[in-house]
Design brief:
The protein is built from four helices and seven strands. The mean pLDDT is about 95.
Length: about 140
């Protein structure tokens, strides 16, 4: 399979809007996350990254630079393209982009069933499992 092209895009660009639509489909429609939780104040200041494959937006994430770390989140992959390494490509791209800006402390909250994906990328789970939007999660970070 061809690797996706990952790009940082402005939130309100055409690609940014397609990324937000993908997030809506994955989190709000598929996973029943309330819209007021899925979109938040971080969206306007976040770096939004989309994965393109054959001209289509097939994955998205955002990263937010906070004083203590860069938080990667809202990782979503179109259902038709799951299991093809799209999320891995997105997260690697985000990690490289953060490190290129001197940001070495990375943090995320993973849905519990996705923890192995992030462990393969160097994240370590810590703390107890917790619920976010009625979905079990684990906090994870890199050192």
């Amino acid at each position: 399979m061809t690797s996706p092209l990952c790009l940082a895009v402005p939130l309100h660009s055409d690609l940014g809007r397609l990324g937000l639509d993908l997030r809506r489909r994955v989190f709000i429609v598929e996973q029943s996350v309330p819209p007021e939780i899925e979109r938040d104040a971080y969206d306007d200041d976040a770096t939004h990254i989309v994965a393109l494959l054959n001209g289509d937006v097939v994955g998205v994430l955002r990263m937010v630079d906070l004083p203590e770390h860069t938080k990667i989140g809202r990782v979503a992959v179109d259902a038709r393209f799951r299991g093809r390494g799209i999320a891995t490509s997105l997260v690697r791209f985000a990690m490289d982009a953060a490190r290129a800006r001197g940001r070495t402390r990375l943090y995320l909250t993973s849905q519990s069933d996705k923890v192995p994906l992030y462990e393969k990328l160097g994240f370590i789970a810590f703390g107890d499992e917790f619920e976010e939007a009625s979905i079990p999660h684990r906090a994870m970070k890199t050192y």
